Amino acid sequence: MVLALALAIPAVARADAAKPDTAHAAAPAPKPMTMKEVKQKLGMIVYPAKGQTAAQQESDEYGCLTWAADQLGIHPGAPAPDAKAAGAAASAKVDSATAGVAVKSAAKGAAAGAIIGSISGNAGEGAAYGAAIGAVGGRRAKKQASADANANAQKQVEAEQKAKIESIKKAMTACLEPKGYTVK
What we know:
Blueprint: H1 2-13, H2 35-42, E1 46-48, H3 54-72, H4 83-97, H5 101-120, H6 123-176, E2 181-183
Helix pairs in contact: 1-3, 3-6, 4-6, 5-6
C-alpha cells in the first residue's frame, strides 16, 4: 500500500504528462491514483479552512504528499515489501536451519527406545519404535517452526507498512495544517 501511495506521487500532480510509447510497452502501467484515492487509502479528510480553491488544495496536498514521502525515505518505483514473500523467505531460512532435525530426533528417540526396550527385554524393537516416534516428532516440530516463522515475518511486514502509512498521515498533516487546512 505504501508503494501504491509512493507511485501515486508523480502521477497525481501530472496527469497531463506525455503518453508513453505503447508500441514498446511490455505491460500496462497501473492506473495513477488521484489525490482523492490517496487520501481514502490513508483515511484522511482535508478541509480547506481558509477558503482555498479545489485546484490550490490539490496542489498543496500533492506538495505535502511528496514532502512526506521524501522525509520518510519512500521512493516512487521502489518495490514495496511483500508480506507473503517475507514469510516464505523466513520459512525457508527456518527449514535450512532445522535441516536434519528429524534425523536428530530419530536418534534421540532410538536411544530412549533402546533403554526402555532393554528393560522389557527387546532393545532393538524399542529403538525402532523410538526412532520412528522421534522422527515424526522432529518433522512436526520443523513444520511448526516454519509456519511460525512465516506468520511472524508476514505480521512484521504488515506492521511496518501500517507504521509507514501512519507516518505519512502525520507528515502530511504537519505540512497541511500551517497552510490553512483542517485534517482529520
